[in-house]
Amino acid sequence: MIKVYLAAFPMLYEGEDIEVRYSLFQDDILIQKESIYSEYMKPAIVGLHSVLTMLLKLEEYKDEKITVIMNDSSLYEIVKGCSTTQNGDVLKMASKMKKQLVKFKNLSFINVTKDKTSLAKWKEILEA
Predict the structure, then answer these.
(1) Least C-beta-crowded within 10 Å: which of 23, 54, 65, 69?
(2) Which residues have a Cβ under 8 Å from the Cβ of 8 and sit 6 or more positions away?
């Protein structure tokens, strides 16, 4: 089983890089930890970009059970398909993301925003 702790950090000023940070565990053993910097994009699509970036890194594990742990309620709604956003940029990026999601056989997402214990663990893993 693969667990991925994922975070994205948008910058508020145009021209500054964004950061996508993830930690990849296989059977509770850390396999990979990485921070990836990308060029500026609108804050509304940074989370979707982070999922796309992570999916590219997970290509070799696409046949395994994968759980993605995040702290982003709006991104979680978009991934689950229950978002009501009308933002064109978000909808376009969500469409790209969904095309990548179908490549994975057993992929699930967990949002830890409201669970203090899980949120603390998520934060600790991504900061260490």
Answers:
(1) 65
(2) 18, 19, 20, 21, 46, 47, 49, 50, 72
Domain of 6 in residue numbering reads as 2-127
In the predicted model, is pLDDT for residue 113 greater than 80?
Answer: yes
**Nearest in space to 125 (alpha carbons), one of 1, 2, 7, 13:** 7
What tokens were used for 34? 């990485």
The amino acid at 94: A
CATH of residue 122: 3.30.420.10
Measured distance CA(43)–CA(37) in Å, rounded: 14
Distance CA 112, CA 122 (A): 8
pLDDT per residue as tens digits for the range 74-101: 999 999 988 888 999 999 999 999 999 9
- Distance CA(4)–CA(69), nearest Å, equals 6
